[in-house]
Amino acid sequence: MKFSVWAPSARRVRVSVDEGVHEMTAGDGGWWHADAEGINYAFLLDDEKPLPDPRSRWQPHGVHAESRVYDHAEFAWTDDAWTGRQLPGGVLYELHVGTFTEGGTFDAAIERLDHLVDLGITHVELLPVNSFDGTAGWGYDGVLWGAVHEPYGGPDGFKRFVDAAHARGLAVVLDVVYNHLGPSGAYLGKFGPYFAGRNDWGPGLNLDGPGSDEVRRYVIDNALSWFRDFHVDALRLDAVHALLDRRAVHLLEQLATEAGALSAALNRPLTLIAESDLNDPKLVTPRERGGYGLHAQWSDDLHHALHVKLTGETSGYYTDFAAPDALERVLREVFFHAGTWSSFRERTHGRPVDTRTVPGHRFLGYLQNHDQIGNRATGDRLSATVAPGRLACGAALLFCSPYTPMVFMGEEWAASTPWQFFASFPDPELAEAVRTGRRREFARHGWGEADVPDPMDPATVERSRLDWAEAGRPGHREVLDLYRALIRLRRERPELADPQVSDLRLDTAPDGSWLVLHRGGLRLAVNFGAGPVTLPLGATAALLTWGEATVDGGAAQLPPDTFALVETTQ
Hints:
By secondary structure, the chain is an alpha/beta fold. Among the domains are: 2-51, Immunoglobulins (Immunoglobulin-like); 504-568, Golgi alpha-mannosidase II (Immunoglobulin-like). It has 15 helices and 29 strands. An eight-stranded parallel barrel has the order 8-9-12-15-16-17-20-21. Helix 6 (212-229) packs parallel to helix 7, helix 8 runs antiparallel to helix 9 and helix 11 runs parallel beside helix 14 (477-492). The longest helix has 18 residues, at 212-229. The model has no long low-confidence stretch (mean pLDDT 96).
């Protein structure tokens, strides 16, 4: 068996395999090689302590321990008939493996996949599953990108999940983090020039300096492995604005090119979805038109506009979205900040989207996601403070918009469980630093220390687990029925999934208190105001209403926080 590692600056490299230690031979380009037999191994650089393989496929004993040989060919897949799912027309469901179920494993999550099918979901998106230090965490502090977190079930457990999802017609989206490594177990810098500069979360990758060819290869090979070896259908690329790359061909464009080639070889769609703070449509513009060629990106502007409309919160980055026309603008134009002033950033921000040529399905819309819940001091969901009718209005707008909708786990039944920030670093100094830093961060925003949950307390994880019994209880069951109905209508009525943003028509009140969304021969009328409104819609039939909303004589009578989706004669 051949063991290889890239360590261009090392003078001596050995590999410890089971009970033996073997000298490695320097090869081309800073790579070292050795032949040995065994399954547990680690590398020794210049006589330092043994380190896990940067390209490890399996870390059964944690990120500081030796790696274990893993053969992808040994897994017995049953998804030979799977041909993938395209993103247009899809509905995503974001979940965290550790808190999605009581068991907190891939196998436990498999038992809930039928719920997603019944809901109408097409793509299930998992928060990062790569190895991180400790047992519980969000996954964004991963340090060994190719090894699946063992407490979730390891590589075989993840493959069982993907296989089971495909058997039910569900595509799998995996959240991957290439902009930084976590603070514990990040040994990459000992092997080579992997890092250059810093970002908000830690050392950034060296993507364009000396030695960066292998660093880029490290990223792209990891991404392609998820597609090829784990049969994943899409990757959500975390915070790509932190990938600093001054080359003529950006890393994202290179990744899109190679993923496209692999997609052709595998004969199924492979989708790349970016999270970006840039508000730059270049990311999702095809390469032949000068863009990076990614397939979609998250739309925080739509979230912010909906959040302000539902909650009335206007602090921090929500400030600009208090404008009466904010929601109308993001529905019509995708970005609110499109070369315009951002008071939060104190500068102009973004670039306009050409809605005539860029379809709406390239932008993911959501009322909630892991960031927008978990990065609140107490991890409170919208359902903790927003009335059910108002939430229903937000859901109706989301699913009737031209954008690709995404649901955060439990949102579909207005879950009462919070989703809080948690970690489990074994190092007591690091654990205390994270705990103290979290409290200081929110103290600056007026929260008392006692109000901020201890991220290291196992009770914080337990509070964040979904209570599946809620889904059938009064007050929750009605919301679940609504989500099912909205997703079903989006699937049955092509007008609702039409991604052409430039054709979108809106009627709105000057103060933004009510809105009518035109979708072909359908009209969605929503009343966010404090008083009732009557809106003439030319309705011939009501497809879906909420609360005391009624449709009579072609007009919709809407009390506050109600909506009506109707069919018209146009």
